[in-house]
## 1
Amino acid sequence: MTEGRFEPKIVGFLCRWCSYTGADLAGTSRTHYPPNLAPIRVMCSGRVDPTFVVKAFADGADGVLIAGCHPGDCHYGEGNYKAMRRYRMLLRLLQQFGIGPDRIRLEWISASEGARFAEVVSDMTEKVRALGPLHWNHRDADPARTSREALHG
Amino acid sequence: MAKPKVAFYWCASCGGCEEAVVDLHEKILEVVEAVDIVLWPVALDFKKSHIEAMKPGEIAVAFINGAVRLSENEEWVKLLREKSGLVVAFGSCAHMGGIPGLANYTTREAILANKYFNAPTVDNKENVLPQPETKINGHALELPRFWEDVKPLDEVIEVDCYLPGCPPPPDLIGSAVGAILKGELPPRGSVLAPAKSQCESCPLNESKPEKIAITEFKRLATSSADPKTCFLAQGFVCLGPATRSGCGERCIRGNMPCRGCFGPPPQALDQGTKFLSSLAAMLQANTDEEARAVADTIVDPLGTFYRFSLPKSLLRRRCEHKRT
């Protein structure tokens, strides 16, 4: 890692059957990819409540990756379709909050696609790095409250 | 025995919560009989110094409506907290930020610019903005400060319980007042309404089909709704699935989909994303393009899903452009 360079924090919700296994394959194949993704194993991409994504951002994540089985391959039939339906609406909602599509990605990564997993994580890390930190720490950052001198406008 | 002292106060609100108190009709006479109202700016004349002169805890209960938007709101609620045994956040704005909380979608700067410079009816050539302090003829005039964020009451002071709704319905107010007078309040932090979702008590619940398949969202402005069929089944956005019950379904009975003023049921951390989750399950879409096409027919997801709860949501406000 280069000193002083911004290292984005990315939370990855990986489906237990495909994408997490794909991440494992990337590891056992010793594929190099950036260490910026914190993987969270979930049973299915369909289990990823949009609340998880928003909570990750609110708690300081700079990006969130949801990864699941390719359409048609879901262990539970159609969990990944549920993820897909939520994703489009979530993108629109987050855009209104000021969080753009490069920070929230949905990818299909199968158990045999270790190289693809590494590619997705590398690409996302660089894109989020270029965007810079999200710093969702407005809670006590009201300038008018911290400085009595700051007036209107 | 002296009657318990009660205060009503308003912050950033519309006055509808005050109406709700008056809507108790004859019952309000029983309330007045039982308590001594020491503060109610909308109806009676009292001075801040009267409250300041009171002992801590002297007021039995303060009902505070409205969100906290100005330094004045903050001063008053802190004063009332000190002087009151119980503080009830009254109505959606005190509970979650409410409609004024939608201002968290923009910034103080943009709001003031719009109001004082850009509105077509404004003539302000010298670009004058209201200032917290102005000196005129040697006198200093003060105005409250306008904060960047709108906050729900419990982010500024400790709140004992919440009466949800825009405004809270008379029966919930009545039973809350009764419980307070008898000293039978539920634990601190309770929302004084049922814990289930509104769909469970909705009169249209029977008409909800097993599976809903929405291909396009409708709006009441451009489509008419059948008053006997579940709004979601008709393709109207209805926040019932992610909203607490207890309102008596006043909107539904008036052929208006639920807008979420009671806030989320206790299990839901964030009303907007919980609603999004349930709504997305109803989309008729099997490809990304189809999902996108349906999702694009909702005009304003943020304003619709968080109509009353933005300042209380996980993200609380829109972030600045530079952070996208």
## 2
Amino acid sequence: MPTWVRAILVIGLLYLFLVGVKLLEGGIKGLGSDFTDALFDSVSNPLSGLFVGILATVLVQSSSVTTSTIVGLVAAGVIDVPAAVPMIMGANIGTTVTNTIVALGSVRRSDEFRLAFTAATMHDFFNVMAVAILLPLELLTGFLSEWAASIANFIAGGEGLTFDSPIKGAVKWGAGLFEDGYGTVIKNETAVAVIGIILGIALIFLTLMFITKNMKVLVATRIERSLNAVLAKSGLIGMIVGMIVTIAVQSSSITTSVLIPLVASGILLVRNAYPITLGANVGTTVTALLAAMAAGTIAGLTIALTHTLFNLVAIAVLYPWKRIRYIPVDLASKLADLAVRRTWAAIAYVVAFFVVLPIVGIVVLS
Amino acid sequence: MVFDFFRGSSGPQGIDAVEAQIVQMVRDSRTVFETSMSAVFGGGKSTEANQEVSQTDQGINEAQQDVRRTLMMHASVQGDVDLPLVLTYMSVVKDAERIGDYAKNLYDLAKFGVDFEVAPDRAELEGYCENVDRLLGDAADAFEKSDSERAQHLIDKADGFLDDYDDHVQAAYESQGPASDAVARTLYYRFLKRITAHVMNLLTSLVMPVDRLDYYDEARDDRD
């Protein structure tokens, strides 16, 4: 496919993604307050919200899908910002499952597996540490969401509930076409709302999948060049490259998964891959920000900005001091040593941490 | 560096960069070979020449590592899009590096004191050297242009030299002359044979599938 055709395709997919967010938001509003109250109750416990975020992201293998959906839910008024914050943080943790699964592919060669598993799980440990520190602080003070709200109000130019953006107008038109389409065939309001939700989630999921796939083809050479340039570098440069690459492909999983074979083969040192991973954490928040632009509500923009601020603050807290900086790497290295000695431990870790724990957490807390 | 992502490409990238590097490795090996030959055929041996040979060979070794890194990066980012090429170049870069090694080994002969300047068979010795020199240049050109027809022609031509080298090694073994002459000729023809075989391996990447690469440095009977 010629590059220009692929570029137009990506723009079209991006538009459909934003339409998906709008359809989801409209569908949820259409279900009425009983449904939204029930949904809100189910995630009103912060830990429950955290586990929902982890599990939802593990299931769809994309934090962008989860966070965009959360933005839609917040924009529709189903969930308020404080309740959505733990879910967003859970999505951050859940997204690390992809590269951990990629690392399991090297299991037959112990030296490579040790490096691959370290590179994959340092991301897990960093994100868990970030949540362990910042979630209680956020619950006590609300500093992240309040900071995000003030930025959102600044961007929106006031303290209203909604804001106008060119994206919002354009997306509303596209979403209206869909709604008018199935609205003329189906007259039942609940059914129309359910179709809106299903179509919205399907569009978010599928368009992001194809955007990622096509963007990877479009920018693969640039990714190669950028990563080649930072192979022997550490710190801020790696972080910025990780962020740029992730924004380009709209997926932190792609960025972090590309690093696994490079680390496993010894071409990229674990400690040089670490800042690239942290940059990917920040880069992936751009998708939710785009979704917030389509939703056009201050609350939606606030939760999207909270996601960005959470990842930036996590870096600011955990990265600058050398004693703290490499704790996630060292913990990951210890876990990798165990995984090399007992392969079942690696599989047990993935299943227990990413599937069993969230399910048990949700069931118990609900 | 941070904004490399946004810049247009300056020079070849990815697989194209690998091809360019392998071509350069062969050309650098040719330089080493020519320096070695001028040392073996009459006094081209000097501290500067020795330094140049060592540095160029080191550069070739570093280029090999760089090619492998680039290939690994390419495979990690692009997935299986260029898998056959990645596997092929991972194999032939070793041949390109070995050419440099054997060219350097020929210089080592001069360092040991081998000098064919006044050898009675100088014309014959030099003739083979000129053949290999031309082969190196032609192989680099064919590889650069991905010219499979020319590559096949060069493989067929070079294949004929391999038996000649073995014949000369056999003749040196059976000669009644001084042992130093026999050893010098044996090593000389042996190194030329290895260089020729590795050039042929390199060229096979243009005409053969991945599973058939890398057999020209083995005896003819063992190739099939």
